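Page 42, continued from yesterday. The earlier attempt failed because a stray header line got pasted into the input along with the sequence. Redoing it now with the clean sequence only.
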Amino acid sequence: MSKPNRILVVDDEQHNLDLLEAMLESLGYHSVLARDGDEALSLLTPEIDLVLLDVMLPGIDGYETARRIREHPEYGYLPIIMVTALKEREDKLRAAEAGANDFISKPIEKVELRIRVASLLKMKEAQDIVRRHRAELEETVTKRTAALRESEERFRTVFEAAQDSIFLKNTDLQYTHVNPAMLRLLDVSIDDIAAKTDDDLFPEEPSRKIRDLELRVLAGQSIETEQTIVANHVPMTISCARVPMRNSLGEVIGICGIARDVTERRVKDVERTDQADEYPSEAMRSTLKQIRLAAGTDALVLFLGESGSGKDYLAWYLHDHSNRADGPFFSINCAALAPELAESELFGHESGAFTGSRGRKRGLLELAEGGTLLLNEIGDLLPQLQAKLLTFLDTQSFTRVGGEKNVSVNARIVAATNRDLEREAELGSFRKDLFYRLNVFSIRVPPLRERIEDLPLIVRNLSESLAEKMGLQEIPVIDGHALTTLRNYHWPGNVRELRNVMERALILCRNDRIGVNDINLIGKVDCEDSLVEDSSFSINLTAGMSMTDVLQEAKTWMVSEGLRLSGGSVKDASALLGISRDQMKYLMKTLRVRR
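This time it went through. Structure tokens are written below.
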């Protein structure tokens, strides 16, 4: 049961106090008695629920007592009933100004007292509830404000000290906050970047790509990318994760990004040469011309050619000459995909999608955001994945394994195969609709035997690359006999087989020169006769011909033949003749020998 309400009764006459005490007790209330205003103020406690206050008091009167109660910092909320024998309107107005809630006239009737007291106590009870809720709310707000302040301080500490570059943008894609690591990454001051967009910081094409990507983030998608940008004339490859920031209503209010400079990692991961344009063969020059045409578009390219002919290298070449060159390049061999993991490798999976899947994994399609994905040996792609790939090619979106949400990706697909896909589509072993979708821009890659003129250049590039990998101090050169042996071989394994042959030759050679004995070929042909036939030289001595003239003709023939055997490469020809490049250039100039 709740305890009775306590009422403070203030009157200077004892018989009035006794009368009011008895009356209140009969109504179920406890009384606290006071003979004047000062005593009444001293008796105020949290247990007092109402004040019944006489006007005529010794010392401070009832009006002043009421005013002081109202001004009290703890009990100013107490309801006050003024008890008076006066009925003039001015007296009631004065009592209201002092803070009285109600009035009751003498002589006091019990029914009137019960009604007025009960009414004010209900009012006080409601006010107590409101006051208690307000106090709880203020306490909650205070705690949450303190927690928020602590969280902000913790976030600021992490934000400022983080080694990764962190930035925040608003819905207008303006930078609102950047940490010191971001300023160091871009080599700018806070004034250079605050309230700016990427249009103000980067060239038109990279900033356009960033803007298109971040509009997708503002639409609610989280995106991780790898992109090369130029800051202060220095190219950098940046790996960046962008996620939408939301308010308490779930509305997107901006973007949070975390970026990292991975330039060194990308340089180490890339193994390719930039000498494709130097190939002398007409077959390869024609192929490269087609690739450069395709590179100017986002068209799907299908490379057709024998195994080992360099389709993956040409896919790199296409990527490097496209407007996606600043994005990532990924390659996957469809023939090597394990059936149970193939879909996850390409499209990724959600946590718990299958036994052993812990956490969300991004597939190669997502990793290739803004760049290129090569599907090598696509003729071996599993049938169940062909339909999903076709859907992606049509919509540029997919769902991860075990997921429900569509993921949009801006990646270019390049495919390669050594199979006759058209024939396999007719036989039903490859989807016809996927073949027609892939066959937008087909490029045939010539086998090595059809471009044997390129062999000296390819040998030189392979020697340099392999020697670096093997940690050789000097790059061995290949002599004329060995080079002719390579030129006269039929190369069923194409460039891949040549690479293996050169790697073995670099291991076997005892000095700085690769000879015929270091070359190991399957079904090796005897090239000695062809070498003698191709490299013979004779001269008829005539009257008046000096030794200088003979030597001059011999030198001219040797320089010309060296250039012929090396496919026009001055470097390889000089190595073949055992002289320096400077000597070779001098002889070509003085003997008037052209490539």
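Notes: The first strand starts at residue 6 and ends at 10.
Reminder to self: strip header lines before submitting.
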